[in-house]
Amino acid sequence: MPSNYHLIIIDVLEDPKAAELDKVFATPTLIKHEPPPTRRLIGDLADREQVLRMLNIDKSRAK
Amino acid sequence: MTAPTTIFEKLETGIEGLDQISYGGLPKGRATLVAGTAGSAKTVFAAQFIAKGITQFNQAGVFVTFEESPADLRRNMSGFNWDIRDWEQKKLWSFVDASPVKDQHSVVSGEFDFGGLLARIKHAIKETNATRLSMDSIGAVFSQFDSAAIVWRELFALAESLKDMGVTSVVTAERTHDFGEISRFGVEEFVADNVILLRNVLEEEKRRRTIEILKFRGTNHQKGECPFTVVGNEGLALLPLSSMELTQKSSTKRISSGIKTLDTMCGGGFFQDSIILISGATGTGKSLTTSHFINDGAEEGRSIMFGFEESRDQLIRNASNWGMDFAAREKAGKLKIICQYPEIAALEDHLIRMQEAIDEFKPTRVAIDSLSALERISVVKNFREFVLSLTETLKRREIAGLFTSTTPSLLGGQSVTEAHISTITDSIILLRYVEMFGEMKRGLTVLKMRGSAHDKNIREFIIDNNGMVIGKPFANVTGILSGSPTHIREQELNRLETIFDDGNSRRKLESS
Lengths: 63, 512
Fold this sequence. Notes:
The structure holds 2 protein chains of 2 kinds. Chain A has 2 helices and 2 strands, in the order αββα. Chain A has helices spanning 16-21, 48-54; strands at 29-32, 39-42. Chain A has a two-stranded antiparallel ribbon with strand order 1-2. The N and C termini of chain A lie close together (6 Å). Chain B is of the alpha/beta class. Chain B has 2 domains: 10-243, P-loop containing nucleotide triphosphate hydrolases (Rossmann fold, 3-Layer(aba) Sandwich); 254-429, 3-Layer(aba) Sandwich (Rossmann fold). Chain B has a 9-stranded mixed beta sheet with strand order 5-4-7-8-3-9-10-11-12, sandwiched between helices. In chain B, strands 17-16-18-19-15-20-21-22-23 form a 9-stranded mixed beta sheet, sandwiched between helices. A two-stranded antiparallel ribbon of chain B has the order 1-2. In chain B, β20 and β21 (439-449) form a beta hairpin. At the A-B interface, α1, β2 and α2 of A face β6 and α5 of B.
């Protein structure tokens, strides 16, 4: 996967305000802001295929 | 009656009546489940718990919402005069918005916990130094996540950590029915210590709201359902009955009924703190007796008249026909006439309004014309509770109360109203039509006068431009109260009197 992505990791225990603003309920939660539409992925991302489908990443290009 | 002492401390809620039935409030530092069907005022309860903390005890609170957005809540609750936005700015109220995120599709993949939510709740409590916490409504969490098993486990963990946060909390949960299982998804399992049920039951076509403390682990509370109503500027207002204390002082001070002869018949007037019931068919003079009573009350003190049958104008016009100037009395601030159709509100709402009017105007006398009109809009149990509450309100403030009740039949008979309230009234006066020689006359008798001797005759009265004029007892008539008066001729009466007085029976008695 190419490195043209921007990822912010927030520890809810350290920054609960950010969690409030983003309305993070369950942890871990991955929020995809760009490209739209915004999507939320809840859980430990155990199902690789589901995660890729969700992020709209072509399976063949993912490593 | 005093509340039993308990080892568990309680937190006064400030919700009217709740602290009474719970013997001092909700168990302190613990969670209480408030379960009810849709529309049973759960959210109002949850918000009121925080609002009362702020306004009455200067305690901050955190509101965790799983269903409605904070924006909706701020708007919906403004009807109760709770300025949530203002409290938020003063850091007295803090929202944790756990309502479903709109327009954002979310997918669950793998394991998760409620760490995010927990961190936010802890943060909000710390930031506001909160004493109270409300969660509304917990069942909605299940609809946000597919995996009921994980939600279950996580809610359990949440409930556990709530205990360590030192806040007193209210957790609301949805019920599918007003009777039966406590809540959907068995939520009560993890906040099982304390359960309050809110009901909104349709009974004989009338909505009836009740609150019941099902259990408070390790501490005492009142058992059974207690009626409540939701009122503006307040929220839930409970009307506890069994907490009523029978310690009302008994006054020996007499007051005038406004009719001299009636005072004499009552042995010198009504007692200041008594409840008087006037019963009679339509047109027998109930409104007249009421008018005399409140007019006299406005002489030295102040009177409130609650009319449920006639309009203000009608009442004022009638009174003026009897030589009483109600309009002038009102202008002087001695009298207040409040007329309403019984049907415009539920009985509980009427009661709250009446109590408000009484507390505001501080009258020495209150009259209600008529109780029967109010009875039309309620079920029997409700009505009895209403009368009890009202009586208690009046007695506690040492206000003389006069209620009227309409009998269904023109001659004789007893009204349903009477059957329910006669035992709690101190005096009962009956007004009856008496048919004599093809003429309708009106009769009056004092049936009951608690704590005093009274005239037991049935007297005739007429109505002239000075109101009621009571005359002599009906002579030689029997059966007035049963509705079939019979005139007895003089000779016959004499014979009746001597019937046990013949020489034979006396000799027999003497010899035995």
